[in-house]
Specification:
The chain is of the alpha+beta class and about 450 residues long. It folds into two domains: about 270 residues, FAD/NAD(P)-binding domain (3-Layer(bba) Sandwich); about 80 residues, Alpha-Beta Plaits (2-Layer Sandwich). It has a six-stranded mixed beta sheet with strand order 8-2-1-12-20-19. It has a four-stranded antiparallel beta sheet with strand order 15-16-14-17, with helices on one face. Helix 1 packs parallel to helix 4 and helix 1 runs parallel beside helix 8. The longest helix has 24 residues. It binds flavin-adenine dinucleotide.
């Protein structure tokens, strides 16, 4: 029996599984689709996500598919400079989401079980039983990373308050049989408004349209080449000719977030926990950070190493971050509305973002570089993660009783770093207190699966 089941092999579920496997647990991912998707909603990784992948040696597997290094992010299309961010990766990495997912999947010990759509979830004091693809699977815990339409969320009746979609847009990857002069040939910062076209590799283009016709059509109406042709002609003129539509989907500006990320033995992450307008490139970054925040906490809980409240700290740390992204993306959505009042607000915001302090604050937020959870001093850029997911102590001796639980390294700058890369001690006499606060009592059993894993913790 695996320690943890993961619903959904999107980037969030895959990275959560990777983190748990790294910590030595057995994980089974249950995925609805029969084969890995080639459809990439996200096309870019924020700097903090790049750091996380690099830290785990996953970036090398992504590199061959990188199409651009974008020295800026954007706030509703207003460029936000990343070049002086305090990170080895001061840029967005232009890479299709499917390649990021494939890179993580290639490093998993246990193959993803595909064609296994979750249809039922039961939990009791000892564990969870999940029906997927007609078979029942049992484990101690379930990570629900089954996306924005999360079945697990529905099955548990988890409160998902927020705002329904008011606008409707279409995303499509397509080829062009006719291309107007002046259309960019390389990656560009997205503009707002209908008719966005971004060249991808292999002669493909990413189109996003959201004109009057898209508002009229229902969310479930199939996207046709004719619809795309009309929208792109409106934006780019009669020379543009849609060739083949490779995939297309409708999306909107619904903004919702789970009230609680933990429901007993079920923990939600990624789009299953929060949805918002995909503007400013935030969703994938949120999901990946959820995964690395949850992974080590759940592993510690299962192993019996976790101090009181550590697992619930996943919700406490990550809920406010996504709540802030919902506010930011709603604000960005308003700035993109083709309306004179919105244009006036946009002009004012553009001026304000020219103030260096404001510009930097937004850069730190959008890039994920500025995140520092309570009790941490931010992330360590010079302390690579331990391969086995243990915390890392640099430049100090480990107090008695902690041997084996924490990886120690030489260094002149004392730091104690959580497995997700956040610094919880930077020198001084309180090392033991920091170890206790974050990594539990030293006497806890080292390699035995604890009572918590069996359901009594
Ligand atoms: C048009 C668009 C553009 C975007 N651009 C960006 C961007 O540039 N940058 C960015 O950061 N974010 C972007 N996003 C958001 C980003 O794509 C998502 O936040 C990201 O996909 C979330 O990953 P996830 O793993 O949580 O969910 P998903 O990627 O949705 O993965 C969920 C997985 O669960 C599976 N699943 C679903 N139901 C079940 C079930 N019942 N049982 C088992 N498996 C199931 C699905 O098949 C899927 O594999 C964009 C989104 C859209 C729509």
């Amino acid at each position: 029996m695996p320690d943890v089941l993961v619903a959904g092999a999107g980037p969030t579920g895959l990275l959560a599984a990777y983190e748990l496997e790294r910590a030595g647990l057995d994980v089974l991912i249950l995925e609805r689709d029969v084969r890995p998707t080639t459809q990439s909603k996200a096309l870019a990784l924020q700097p903090r996500s790049v750091e996380v992948l690099a830290d785990r040696g996953l970036l090398a597997a992504v590199e061959p598919y990188v199409e651009a290094r974008l020295p800026a992010g954007h706030f509703s299309g207003i460029p936000i400079d990343y070049t002086d961010l305090p990170t080895p990766f001061p840029y967005q990495l232009g890479v299709e989401q499917a390649h990021v997912a494939a890179a993580i999947e290639s490093r998993l010990r246990t193959p993803v079980l595909r064609g296994a759509a979750v249809t039922a979830v039961e939990q009791d004091a000892e564990g969870v039983t999940v029906t997927a693809g007609g078979r029942r699977h049992r484990a101690g815990w379930l990570v629900a990373a089954d996306g924005g339409h999360s079945t697990v969320r529905t099955l548990l009746g988890a409160a998902f308050p927020g705002m329904s979609a008011r606008i409707s847009l279409v995303v499509a990857d397509l080829t062009l049989a006719g291309k107007p002069a002046g259309l960019a040939d390389d990656w560009q910062l997205p503009s707002t408004g209908s008719g966005f076209l971004l060249p991808l590799s292999g002669g493909r283009f990413r189109a996003i349209v959201g004109g009057e016709e898209q508002q009229r059509l229902g969310r479930d109406a199939p996207v046709t080449a004719d619809e795309l042709q009309r929208a792109l002609t409106d934006a780019h003129g009669p020379e543009i000719k849609v060739g083949e539509v490779l995939w297309a989907s409708r999306f909107g500006d619904a903004a919702r977030q789970l009230e609680r990320y933990r429901h007993g033995r079920v923990l939600f992450a990624g789009d299953a926990a929060h949805i918002h307008l995909p503007i400013g490139g935030q969703g994938l970054n949120l999901g990946l950070q959820d995964a690395v925040n949850l992974g080590w906490k759940l592993a510690a809980h299962i192993r019996g190493h976790a101090p009181e409240g550590l697992l619930d700290g996943y919700h406490d740390e990550r809920h406010p971050i996504a709540a802030r992204v919902l506010v930011s993306t709603r604000a960005q959505g308003v700035l993109g509305v083709p309306d004179p009042d919105a244009a006036a607000v946009r002009a004012v915001v553009t001026e304000l973002l020219a103030v260096p302090e404001a510009h930097r604050a937004v850069a730190l937020e959008l890039s994920g570089i500025g995140i520092a959870y309570p009790g941490t001093t931010g992330r360590a850029t010079d302390v690579p993660a331990a391969p086995d997911g243990r915390p890392v102590l640099v430049g100090a001796s480990l107090p008695a009783g902690w041997a084996g639980r924490v990886e120690t390294r030489e260094g002149t700058k004392p730091q104690l770093v959580r497995p997700d890369g956040y610094v919880v001690w930077t020198g001084g006499s309180d090392l033991e207190a920091a170890l206790h606060r974050w990594f539990g009592p030293p006497s806890a059993a080292e390699d035995t699966v604890s009572a918590a894993a069996r359901g009594t913790g």
